Amino acid sequence: MKIHEDNTFGALGSAIGKGLLAGLAATAAMTLSQMIEMKINKREPSDATLVVAEDTAGLKPASPQEKQQLSQEIHWSYGTAWGIARGLIGLTGLKGIPATLVHFGAVWGTALVMLPKHDAAKPINKQKPQEIGIDILHHGIYAVTAGMVYDALDAGSRRERKVKKILASLKGFKKGIK
């Protein structure tokens, strides 16, 4: 039995793997931006992740140390998992800035809906402009980093070469029409 090299499940697995790596890198970048911003603004870490975890899964940390550890575990898991969405976006052939904008919209849009729903944050219309700007900054850093890492990992892939070949043939077809 001959296995076809360019198969759907292989492409899906590759996109998910690259997406997870991109999500991990993006979570690291977002975490760093949050740490810098918290230091500048003298802000304590958010407990939004714990509020959502408690509301959805009934998780309750027993101590302050456990609270911080659980918050970090959820933050890193959630951010890394969102990389899968970037991988799926990449499967469509979308890359660069357009893919980053779609990914940003999905990640930030989910936060705008999910956090107020679980009383972990105020709805956007009740937030101060500075709070919204900081949230956009952190999520933007996440999306840009995920996009750059994913596109770097995906550069030169068979799928990318196939898309370029199709685009080149369409350009040749368009020239033939003139």
Order of helices and strands: HHHHHH
Helix content: over 70%
Query: Unreliable stretches, pLDDT < 50, 5 or more residues?
Result: none
Tell me the strand percentage band.
under 5%
Gyration radius from CA atoms, angstroms: 20 Å
Q: Overall 3D geometry?
A: elongated
The counted number of beta strands is 0
Which class of secondary structure composition applies to the elements? mainly alpha
What is the count of DSSP helices, taking H or I runs of 4+ residues? Answer: 6
Task: Write structural notes for this entry.
The structure is a single chain. With about 180 residues, this protein is mainly alpha-helical. Helices cover about 80% and strands about 0% of the residues. The chain contains six helices and no strands. The longest helix is centred in the N-terminal third of the chain and has 34 residues, at about 10-40. It is elongated and about 65 Å long. The mean pLDDT is about 90.
